[in-house]
Every structure is written in C-alpha cells, then in structure tokens.
C-alpha cells in the first residue's frame, strides 16, 4: 500500500484555499483543509471538501 498526503491549492475559485489530498495507491480518497494556509485557515467550502470526487 502506498499512502501519501499531497498539499495543493483548490482550483474552483479565485480564493486559492490550501488543500491536503489523501492518496492511496494512486487514487485520491479524501480531501482535508490545510491548517497552515493563510487563505482558508483550516476551513473549506462545500466545493473544497468534495474536490476529490471531481478529479
């Protein structure tokens, strides 16, 4: 099993919220907010929480 956490930026609006994508065996399985991002400060909107469903 290959498990990774990848820090990235949400592409859905101009805010640029920080995301952490949880990847298991090459598939994105979960999205978490980046707690260190100054933009969203550990919070996400509904689009951000579900970004892994759209990839």
State the gist of this model.
The mean pLDDT is 94.
Quaternary status: single chain
The helix-and-strand class reads mainly beta
- Rg calculated over all Cα atoms: 11 Å
- Compute the number of structural domains: 1
Number of helices: 2
Strand content: 35-45%
> What is the share of helical residues?
10-25%
Give a quick account of the main beta sheet: strands, pairing sense, barrel closure: 3 strands, antiparallel
CATH topology: N-terminal domain of TfIIb
Provide key terms for this protein:
3-stranded antiparallel sheet; mainly beta; N-terminal domain of TfIIb; globular; 55 residues
Overview of the structural elements:
This protein has 55 residues and is mainly beta. The protein has one domain (3-54): ADC-like domains (N-terminal domain of TfIIb). Helix content is 15%, strand content 38%. It has two helices and three strands; from the N terminus they run E-E-E-H-H. The protein has helices spanning 46-49, 51-54; strands at 3-9, 18-24, 27-33. It has a three-stranded antiparallel sheet. The protein is globular, with a radius of gyration of 11 Å. The two termini are 21 Å apart.
């Amino acid at each position: 099993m290959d498990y990774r956490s990848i820090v990235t930026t949400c592409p859905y609006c101009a805010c640029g919220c920080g995301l952490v994508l949880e990847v298991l065996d090459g598939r994105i399985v979960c999205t978490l907010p980046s707690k260190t991002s100054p933009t969203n400060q550990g919070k996400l909107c509904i689009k951000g929480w579900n970004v892994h469903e759209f990839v």
